[in-house]
Write a structure and sequence with these properties.
By secondary structure, the protein is α/β, with parallel strands linked by helices. It contains 13 helices and 13 strands. The protein has a seven-stranded parallel β-sheet, with helices on both faces. α10 links the parallel β12 and β13.
């Protein structure tokens, strides 16, 4: 019976479309037969079918609120929550506060160590906060090995109870590169080959590097899916620099519609936890060009499923893109290796089994 399932409260401080919420919805879908999930997150872009669900609680977007804390404590007690699982820094703080009152096991998933976008003072403050409050976590989950190493290098204490569980995405049909291109399907009135990026338009994603690369490679379309605080600044940058081959399409419900029309995936991030968007691209067999940073290095094998380039080196990134785009044999090789790496390492089955073991440990 449903009432016999362990009850998991998942907390996210962001409801915006992105890797974090996508991961949460996938986790909920994969484990719904074994566990009873309750969600606490902002109702910004949540799926309409769950908005009126009694198992969902609306909280503020990226803001700590006393009212939210009180609501969460009442919500958790009313629903007899067994385990709290926080995703991301803001959710971690909220979860640590309510754990003091609820005395329930707390699992905390980092989803990226955000120190690279911080000033020296803010970085020191964040590390101090983690070391002062992190003892409240019963288990810390890293989504990649390099994320764990960054935590060690940042001198963030995480104790003995920790594990690495890679993110995953669903298996998708393989892209066929020999099919005739139809850019009109995605709203582009030309026959150029497409390079795609899927990311939030925020500092972490380093989107202006995409634009600089696009300016050097005007024979290709550069498609960017996603919204964020830098959207207007991005539009102005493209206009002021006369860059006509970048298409900012905002948030799209069906990203695969665009991925299947692309020839290559590009990530310019300053850092990642374990990038969902790259995994989605690999699931259909797209070759990858990605910055040589945390998270990306756990996903892409340089010279095997794509290339890693040195962050900030526009010439290197452009050269590597051209190397793939102008060599059909290399593109096919990377496509094969990208597709089968996803099938071998980043399947939902692997992630599901890891989380079943983790939740059972604390039930």
């Amino acid at each position: 019976m449903n009432n016999s399932k362990p009850k998991i409260l998942i907390i996210s401080a962001s409801g915006k479309t992105g890797g974090g919420p996508s991961h949460i919805f996938l986790l909920r879908e994969l484990l719904k037969d074994e566990f009873d999930f309750y969600l606490a997150m902002p109702f910004l872009n949540l799926k309409s079918e769950i908005l009126d669900n009694k198992k969902c609680l609306h909280i503020s977007e990226r803001k700590i609120s006393l009212i939210d804390i009180i609501k969460l404590i009442i919500f958790s007690r009313k629903n007899s929550i067994n385990i709290i699982h926080a995703h991301g820094k803001g959710a971690g703080l909220i979860a640590r506060i309510i754990k003091i009152f609820l005395q329930k096991p707390l699992i905390y998933t980092f989803h990226g160590i955000h120190t690279l976008c911080f000033s020296k003072f803010k970085k020191s403050l964040y590390i101090f906060y983690e070391n002062m409050t992190g003892w409240l976590d019963d288990e810390k989950v890293f989504v990649s090995h390099s994320e764990k190493m960054q935590t060690i290098n940042s001198k963030i204490f995480f104790g003995k109870n920790n594990c690495i569980i890679n993110n995953s995405t669903k298996k998708m049909l393989r892209k066929k590169f020999n099919q005739e291109k139809n850019n009109l399907k995605i709203g582009i009135n030309n026959n150029k080959k497409n390079i795609i990026s899927i990311c939030r338009l925020v500092d972490q994603k380093n989107i202006f590097e995409i634009f600089k690369i696009a300016k050097k490679l005007q024979i290709y379309n550069f498609i960017v899916l996603g919204d964020g605080s830098l959207f207007e600044k991005a539009k102005n940058y493209l206009e002021n620099n006369f860059i006509k081959n970048v298409f900012l399409f905002g948030t799209q419900k069906d990203v695969f519609k665009y991925l299947y029309e692309a020839d290559l995936f590009l990530s310019t991030s300053l850092y990642e936890g374990h990038p969902i968007s790259i995994l989605e691209a690999m699931s259909i067999g797209l070759p990858i060009i990605a910055s040589n940073v945390t998270g990306n290095i756990d996903t892409i094998k340089d010279g095997y499923s794509g290339f890693l380039y040195r962050l900030g080196n526009i010439n290197q990134a452009s050269y590597l893109i051209e190397k793939i785009m102008k060599n059909k044999a290399l593109k096919l090789k990377f496509s094969n290796n990208s597709f089968y790496t996803h099938r071998e390492l980043f399947t939902t089955t692997k992630m599901k089994n890891s989380y079943i073991s983790l939740y059972k440990k604390y039930n």
